[in-house]
Amino acid sequence: MKELLEQINSYYPLSEETAEALLNICTEEKYCKNDLLQEAGAAARYYYFIKSGLIGYYTMDEQGNSVYKIFFEEKSFVASTAAVIKDKPSEFNIIALEDCSVIKYPAKAFRELINQYHDLALFHIHYLEKNWVVKKEPLEISLKHETAKQRYLQLQENKSLYDRLKQHHIASYLGITPTQLSRIKKEIN
Q1: Residues near 9 by beta carbon (within 8 Å), at least 6 away in sequence
Q2: What is the pLDDT of residues 37-47, one digit of tens each?
Q3: Residues 97, 164: contact at Cβ < 8 Å?
Q4: Measured by CB atoms within 10 angstroms of the end CB, which terminus of the chain is less buried, N or C?
Q5: pTM for the complete prediction?
């Protein structure tokens, strides 16, 4: 649980009392490659912190193809956040793309702790601001204004993530077919 607290404290430091209360609702879980942590259409009941492994966040298009929105590596927090906040079923699947070890904590209990512990609420605010506003905005702009080739080149810059993704994941994330991805790769080389 040390990694979880280190990551939280990088956003906002927790008191010992708050950390203890948080750790009391946490459990460690293992997921095998292709296991779903969250299924679309089901209530979003948990937040996850990735200790090891790679996780994908996707929905299905009209043809039944997976459309990846984002990928999460170690030291990332993952949840169907909008579904938790709205208390509605998730629109996304969250899947283990590799064998994963995560720390899992119930969204309802976490939200109760946020109301009780000011420092935990500040962590949550700082986390949401950085990851759901500051980091997300350029991604949304790139989806509207950049070509698949430009977005592919940006993805390649994150070598640790890029090297772990399968080609069909990359194509899905870019919103193109694997054949189109092959053409882009050939053009670049």
Answers
A1: none
A2: 999 999 999 99
A3: yes
A4: C
A5: 0.89
Cα 175 to its chain centre, rounded Å, is 18
DSSP SS3 for 84: helix
For 1, 12, 19, 22, 102, the CA distances from 5, given in Å and listed in that order, are 7, 10, 7, 9, 13
**What's the rounded Cα separation, in Å, for the pair 165 and 160?**
9
For the segment 125-172, what is each residue's pLDDT rounded down to a tens digit?
Answer: 999 988 876 666 556 655 666 888 888 998 899 898 999 999 999 999
DSSP 17-66: HHHHHHHTT-EEEEE-TT-EEE-TTSB--EEEEEEES-EEEEEE-TTS-E
Please name which of 1, 5, 14 lies closest in space to residue 120, comparing C-alpha atoms. 14
CA torsion sign for 22, 27, 30, 36 is negative
For residue 173, the one-letter residue type is: Y
Compute how many other C-beta atoms are within 10 angstroms of the C-beta atom of residue 121. 16
Mean pLDDT of 66-92: 93
- 97: Cβ–Cβ under 8 A, 6 or more apart, which residues? 33, 34, 53, 54, 55, 56, 71, 164, 165, 166, 169
